[in-house]
Amino acid sequence: MSNTIPQQAAYCLLYKSDQKTQNKAQEQPQSQPSNSSNTEDNQARNNNNNNSNSNTFWQEFEWTPGQKSTVQNILAKNLVKSSIHSNLSSRGNFLVEKLDKEAHLNWDRFYTSHQTNFFKDRHYLNKAFPDEFGVVYGQHQSPVEGENGAEQKQNERAASDDCADDEIASMDVTALPPFTIVEIGCGVGNTVLPLLELDPIITVVPNDFDPCQEPQGEQTNRSSSSSSSKRKIAVWGLDFSKVAVDLLQQDKRYIQAAQKDHRAMSAVWDIVDSHPGEIHPELESCSDISLLLFCLSAVSPEKMGQAAAHVAATLRPGGTLILRDYGRFDEAQLKLGSSLGKRLSENFYVKHDSTRVYYFDLDDLERLFGQSGAGLICIEKKYIQRVYKNRSDNTERRRVWVQARFRKPLLRLSS
Ligand SMILES: C[S@@+](CC[C@H](N)C(=O)[O-])C[C@H]1O[C@@H](n2cnc3c(N)ncnc32)[C@H](O)[C@@H]1O
Fold this sequence. Notes:
By secondary structure, this protein is α/β, with parallel strands linked by helices. It has 18 helices and twelve strands.
């Protein structure tokens, strides 16, 4: 009980601050946190923030039972007030349907207004997902490369950066299909564009992952095989907002990679409405990594199953889906869940700009993408929970995200 009042007070203080700044700065976790709540690693990050004169620092947290029931009580207490149906009675259904039908137009408006200035570029995928992105960032160490292999490879890369395009032209990387990364819901390319800046040729060790023999859970796809191969990286950016895709296509990093090397592709795709093969024949079963970052939360919960199946269809057998999105009881959910007429359905809300957001728990992800959903195998699912503290006004904000990795089986598992 002692947690109740300070917790509510903290949320109240918090909501007074500028919403836009909060969204921009804290929309998404910027790097991979560790799992424990008070590690040396954490301490080091906090000290880093001290050094940069920041008044804000974060720590990982676990909900105590008291804090969790406080949050649940706040949402339950505001259930009627927050529901679009109780506030607009018969117009509620009409508005819910309109928001769904016009979802892409609302995102078009969002990007028309913010252009490329809202989300930050993502440069941390290798830290957050080393098993998948280590190789993309040139960090794979094959047995042939040995102890100094990574450093040597970095030096080689520095020397060859200027002639990367010539390198592609002269190497026989066409013998193998490109190492393909697909971002679904890519927006204006904050993930796609930094990927296109990396070395376009990577060394890949064959993936000998066999889902039928893997114990559920933890095995990585690293192989001890030494028969590595050079492959070109190809990146797809997909989004249902035409304005966002147009902005991506105007970026000079995109233009260069698309025109010179044919290793950047993009298309307008609504993941609810169509199978990837209908958008482009090459999109079906093409990807080594498919990324779904803060996209699925914008889809109506009753259509997420359909969307998950379409997303999974982009993966080649053995390919990995990486997902990050908003998590249950994130502070922003508490704010929307305490506001008048913002709740469309359970854990699903409309924001001030008419875009929508769902707050996931880990069971949702398993249901959507696991064996009884899109038929993938879960290799990781977890919450990322951070409390951001501000020294100057003594407020704190509890942010929650979900993160998961699912792999497409090589063989169809028979029941
Ligand atoms: C919060 S933004 C995230 C953008 C980007 N992934 C990032 O993390 O910076 C959500 C993106 O998902 C896209 N989106 C929402 N619903 C979609 C759908 N049904 N099909 C395809 N894209 C969708 C939106 O247009 C928007 O660009």
